[in-house]
Task: structure prediction
Amino acid sequence: MRASAVNLDPGVRRIPYEPAYDVREMVTVEDVMEREGLGPNGAILRAIDILAEDENLERLVRGLESVDADFIVVDTPGQAEAFALRASGRRIVGAISARFSRTTAVFLGEVGSDVLVEDFLTAALLAKIIELKLDVGVVPALNKADLGGGERLKEIWTSVLRGETRDLILEGGGVASEALSELLEAIKEFRTAQRVALISAREERGLDELFDMLVEVWCACGDMT
Ligand SMILES: Nc1nc2c(ncn2[C@@H]2O[C@H](COP(=O)(O)OP(=O)(O)OP(=O)(O)O)[C@@H](O)[C@H]2O)c(=O)[nH]1
Ligand SMILES: [Mg+2]
Result:
């Protein structure tokens, strides 16, 4: 099984892998800041809009087609809201999934931040909203498991996916937790994923489970080609 990585983040400076294709050949956040006089946030949004233009999308899909591998891992911008919650980002995902039928998103949370129950519930709610907005399957994964404390966060996130957050508000406390819990409860019917992969990219742990979860998504879509 051969896997290659592709960089779809126009804002990244250094990447710890050799990308088989890199969108920075079309646009970089740095250039956009310089050229259009934008700040970093505006420039990220603008760069994603530029990538979503017809001509660039075609170039991106051709770039992916040129990759000689069984699986392509596409590294998207870390600002998930800027990417997945905007029309341009979804347009990019749509163009990729129209060409590659098994396109599946991995929503990466991380251990070591958002450790307050309430903050983690908020992150899980964001993951859920992104799952609803994207027209592809989404597999939740919790990275940096090597930092410790991952099991507990995995449990919390799994409860969120299953719509079983009632007990968690006791731990988090406060009106905001309660409101969050109600929001999560309200959208639980739309859930797809049922579990979370606990992984460590650094120690290459949990990747088999993540892969199994991806296979399950592909099987559920009836497409194993
Ligand atoms: N301990 C630990 N650190 C990791 C792991 N994976 C990545 N890191 C580190 O976390 C830092 C941030 O890297 P990423 O989480 O990949 O995020 P990024 O790609 O830099 O940022 P965005 O794409 O903008 O979100 C880097 O210093 C990585 O070396 C992991 O599994 N364990
Ligand atoms: Mg990144």
